[in-house]
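User: My notes are a mess, but here's the protein and 2-oxoglutaric acid's SMILES. Can you give me a structure?
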Amino acid sequence: MYDRVLRSELTQSILSEGHFETSKVYHGKNAHVDSDIRVSESAILEQDEVTRQIRRRARQFRGWHGNKTVAIQPLKVQRYSVNGYYSVHYDWDGYVTEGNRVATFMIYLVDSCTGGGTNFPRLRRPVDSRWCSIIECEDDEYPGLTFKPIAGSAVFWENMHSNGSFHRGVRHASLPVKSGEKVGLNIWLWDHAWRPPLVE
Ligand SMILES: O=C(O)CCC(=O)C(=O)O
Ligand SMILES: [Fe+2]
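Assistant: No problem, the inputs look usable. Here's the predicted complex:
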């Protein structure tokens, strides 16, 4: 979890731009709306100086193996209203064989909600209570580790093991928003050179 990665002026500029549409679920090149899996609205941000700088910074912060073949995908803003959610999934795509999403930044832009945490059911919650400002410590409604949406902060994780095999430990969900609104900025690192490893 990274604190204050985005200033609020940038958030305002991002939010005023978006052309939101009902979010789809993707399998390779196929995409469809499926409210059993995902209820939110998304907008791909146009390229401008702000988005260019954010993408540059995300790329500098973290290359995949320091890899020159990693690109930052176009930035996507996702808005959840009451009962909006995204059920458990992986960010890697098991249907493609050339290139994949090797890592994810999830930046919270608007946190005026209850619920709406980012939940990793297979990760263990740390016991040290100092984590409790950023992770859910009181609520046992969902298994595993849940990051609270905190505007301006980011969660970063890798979607692959170092040999390029899919990391199944980072299965995650956006928990249902109970009240208010949550908005997140998804930044995905796409490695063009990724190929399925010969051994899992
Ligand atoms: O909004 C979140 O907390 C997670 C979003 C997510 O996992 C995704 O869009 O792939
Ligand atoms: Fe995801």
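Residues 8-191 form a domain with the Jelly Rolls fold (CATH 2.60.120.620).
User: Great, I'll file this with my notes.
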